[in-house]
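Researcher: I'm preparing a figure for a lab meeting and need a structural model of a single chain. I don't have an experimental structure, so a prediction will have to do for now. The sequence is pasted below. Please return the structure as tokens so I can convert it later.
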Amino acid sequence: MRSVIDAVGALAVRVVITEMRDSVFYADLALDVSGEEVQISSRPSDAIALAVRTGTPVFTIPGVLEEAGVHFEEDDEEEEVARFREFLEEATVEDFLGGGHSHPSE
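Model: Understood. Here is the structure written out token by token.
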């Protein structure tokens, strides 16, 4: 995907996780094409992989966070944050590529 974007002279502007429906996430990829912003529906796994490779920021709609977010009890929060940081230190891009769900239009 990055090669195609580079080949057409576009720039990835942002990834937005737009929706979670029936436990499936949906995303849009915003590209700058000759100064015009173009929105493209994308599998979240593909869009996040692109964002990791290009330094593109990733956002989400607040409702998605409310629906899919994890709430911690005060006592568990520090331990969960420590485990998540440990995971991130060892994570690779490939860890985020598996099991992507396709968008209905794909």
